[in-house]
# Entry
Amino acid sequence: MRNQALHWLSSHPWAMLRKMAQNLLEFWYLVEGVLRSRITGAAMVLELLLAFAGGRLAWRAGRRRMILLVVMVILYFDAVYAPIKSVFHYSLVVVPFLCVLQAFVLAWFYARVAHSDLRSQS
# Structure
């Protein structure tokens, strides 16, 4: 089967790229029903935006090695799972790393709220 897959890949490179793109997208919002798909898609876009914002905050805070490690792990699993099929097991590995990035947004927000509370008490 491996030989058949490699033969198909070499014979149909554009189809393989389309399959990989579809598999990556299906991970983020593959659910049954149009309404559920839209709700889950919106939630995942929000999750990715929060992760991006957290990564930016962490980068500015000098946590570059940690950010690079997190992004490398996410990209690694994208590269491994995209040719095969996006499945729930992928999210079990990647979502915790997205949460690491999102934690920087929460920490930034908490620092802002705590700092404003100290000002209001003075």
About this structure: The chain has one domain: 2-121. The longest helix spans residues 88-121. Helices lie at 2-11, 13-29, 34-60, 64-84, 88-121. Residues 2-121 form one domain.
